[in-house]
Amino acid sequence: MSDTTQITLARRPVGEPPDDTYEVRRVELPALVEGQLLLRVVYLSLDPYMRGRMSDAPSYAAPVGIGDVMVGGTVCVVEESRHPEWAPGDVALSYSGWQTRAISDGTGLRRLDPERAPISTALGVMGMPGFTAYAGLLEIGRPQPGETVVVAAATGPVGSAVGQIARARGARAVGIAGGPEKRQALLDDFGFDVALDHRSPDFADELAGAVPDGVDVYFENVGGEVTRQVLRHVNTFARIPVCGLVSGYNATEAPEGPDRLPGFLGLVLRRSLTVRGFIQDEFTASHGRDFVREMSGWLADGTVRYREDVVDGLESAPEAFRGLLTGRNFGKLVVRVSEDPTS
Amino acid sequence: MSDTTQITLARRPVGEPPDDTYEVRRVELPALVEGQLLLRVVYLSLDPYMRGRMSDAPSYAAPVGIGDVMVGGTVCVVEESRHPEWAPGDVALSYSGWQTRAISDGTGLRRLDPERAPISTALGVMGMPGFTAYAGLLEIGRPQPGETVVVAAATGPVGSAVGQIARARGARAVGIAGGPEKRQALLDDFGFDVALDHRSPDFADELAGAVPDGVDVYFENVGGEVTRQVLRHVNTFARIPVCGLVSGYNATEAPEGPDRLPGFLGLVLRRSLTVRGFIQDEFTASHGRDFVREMSGWLADGTVRYREDVVDGLESAPEAFRGLLTGRNFGKLVVRVSEDPTS
Asked: Which ipTM was obtained for this model?
């Protein structure tokens, strides 16, 4: 008999999720029946969208139920198998959530080849965040050579891929991040043309200086004050893929006025803007293969680089998740739930 | 020697444009030289976009200069000609602005055939407003058979065409207008499937009842409270062509809070909305010919009907324009500046 330690949603948080959002429980797992396999979670991905799943506001995905295991993408190793296609030691991309082990019937698992790329990248640059950047930038943003692409949270797994893919397409990439260390990493690690620190007291002026020809694509993943500043510079026919709004995920009510919506719609009208919300899965059928092929090539030849922020132990997830929502992490945040057998 | 009476922009208005926004002046016109023609304005179009041109806020078009004649589309008859392609009595679509006569060198004139359609329709259903509806709805809104299209200011020249074109494409058209008389006209004159009065105290409930399957296309031409109500019902992947925001054109400052922009962007994200501002001229090259062909056919076979609101005399333009911005007119507003020789 094996067991799993699970982090469940105990109550729906208000604002930044405190510790009592969660409950930790240990559950005995039944013996496998024919067709099942036992997964040991190696890496758990922490992503901003999880904040939305904690809430029961209407959304594109059902909320996590009270008492249910928190959802999340995982990289797992097969510990035991009674499934014909899986053997102990195999590595799989799974959606096992915030727990240490899970029983699967194989549905939704994707086999990972540790020789091809570090297995944790299936949660980052080769996975959902990388594909979000790829599909949103290329299908909605459609950057042309010489155009200016701006992205915030630019050291994150989506933002860093957006900037590097924009450059691979011949566009100029302007990255925005919080703090001088992250700002420097945009230049040194990810090759942005210009890097800005939104905490700088001169941010508005620095942004204006960074986009002398205006902004053609603003890849929206933060919202709030950064967005307001960038909008001052959008060109006619600019495209704004809306991928996330992490600055507001902990908000408990509509911010104080004035009401900026009429002004925003006026800007959309006067500049003939395209604003398009998206979730990456709508593009999987149309762009999934191209993504794997192109991104593998870019990683191999160094066109795209990535950075991971690894925290150890499932019990670290709640604090790490709070840090993610407030910008304290640096790179793709993953929890190493158990030993990585491939590293 | 002939003369022209002109209405010029005397000062930039704050809010609803008062009479002292304008100055009236009479100007002697010089004799024609070779290549010129003298136009007598028959119809002057009044359109919401003109409010934007009175302001010097950054926009897609330069503002009218102080002391300059107010701009506007016109239908004119040629009084005299020293131009090889034009003869007295010819009728032309022009952009002569708020005046009674103008000298032209032929640039930008389009010949109108009075046999084909009443000449005033070149300012309405067969002109810029009709094309705005056609291009914005079909290219951005892309209504599919059975989908629900909602449009406000629906008795206006753009809104009424949007609803009728939507129905011609097999979609369900829900029209919103102000007051019971306009509401009834949506059903009787323009064939909307459902008509709503946004001044009704039960408007929110009536709207909910009118869109049981949600809203797939919201053709945005008013903004404000109507927009907020419609947004509650937009479906995943809904399209919102942003054509105008007339409810806010007289606004002097951002409305009181709360700030609805974060909530709006959140909706764009969660519902994968497409919000796209546009000005019809970007579609002239791609859709202009199809428009003339299709709209002529629809007018001929009764698929599309139109309504005009004709006021007499150039001196009526300032008051009529205020009425346009506050919904007092009913149908395409034109000023009959001088006698229509074709009617």
From this structure: 0.87
